[in-house]
Design a protein that fits this description.
The complex is a heterodimer of chains A (109) and B (115). In chain A, 0% of the residues lie in helices and 56% in strands. Chain A has 109 residues and is mainly beta. In chain A, the strands form two sheets. In chain A, strands 2, 4, 5, 9, 10 and 11 form a six-stranded mixed β-sheet that branches. Chain A has a five-stranded antiparallel β-sheet with strand order 1-3-8-7-6, with no helix packed on it. In chain A, strand 7 and strand 8 form a beta hairpin. The radius of gyration of chain A is 13 Å and the shape is globular. In chain B, 0% of the residues lie in helices and 56% in strands. Chain B is globular, with a radius of gyration of 13 Å. The chains are: A mainly beta (109), B mainly beta (115).
């Protein structure tokens, strides 16, 4: 079956460092992947979409990469801040959006 | 206006009650979604409506009954729920994009507790 996997349940980093989150997919070849942020008790908020023919996409301090050879997308937050602490979800979009389990990021001041 | 609103924010109901969750958007989106999210788990798709018609039902038990009265409104009618149905219920909307790169806009959710 098609799977979206985020292997790190949680990630702790120091303020100012770069956080790197991983999303792997198996048994299919997505045309694109999406990344969302979710704060506790709130709905997910869309951050970035990257297509299979795009190696990298940036938005302010955020960067997403897509490696079709490794079947992997990496999500980077540079110069991280405590306000970046949240759960980050990778998703396969389309008719039936499937979310990965998410990675909870904790940024310490 | 890029907001999806959901009411109520919190709902406590008994197993014999009938209640409804409401969702509204005014972004002109023609696709609307219901998700269920348990603690520390990702959202799980329940239903998808496109152009006010039910497109996808992810084998959801009949005690959950969706309704899309018009392009801006989405309801979820609840009847004879079980305690394990307690969760955060999220509504989302998006354009119905041929390329299927639909960015979904989520509401804040309704926290449902079934006693």
């Amino acid at each position: 079956s098609q799977k979206i996997e985020q292997n790190s349940e949680a990630l702790n980093i120091q303020e100012g460092k770069t956080a790197t989150l991983t999303c792997n997919y198996t048994n299919y070849s997505p045309a694109y992947l999406q990344w969302y942020r979710q704060d506790p008790g709130r709905g997910p908020v869309f951050l970035l979409l990257i297509r299979e023919n795009e190696k990298e996409k940036r938005k302010e301090r955020l960067k997403v990469t897509f490696d079709t050879t490794l079947k992997q997308s990496l999500f980077h937050i540079t110069a991280s801040q405590p306000a970046d602490s949240a759960t980050y979800l990778c998703a396969r979009g389309g008719f039936k959006t499937i979310f990965g389990a998410g990675t909870r990021l904790f940024v310490k001041a | 206006d890029t907001e999806v609103t959901q009411t109520p924010k919190h709902l406590v109901m008994g197993m014999t009650n009938k209640k409804s969750l409401k969702c509204e958007q005014h972004m002109g989106h023609r696709a609307m979604y219901w998700y269920k999210q348990k603690a520390k788990k990702p959202p799980e798709l329940m239903f998808v409506y496109s152009y006010e018609k039910l497109s996808i039902n992810e084998s959801v038990p009949s005690r959950f009954s969706p309704e899309c009265p018009n392009s801006s409104l989405l309801n979820l009618h609840l009847h004879a729920l079980q305690p394990e149905d307690s969760a955060l219920y999220l509504c989302a909307s998006s354009h119905w994009d041929r390329e299927r790169t639909d960015t979904q806009y989520f509401g804040p959710g309704t926290r449902l507790t079934v006693l």
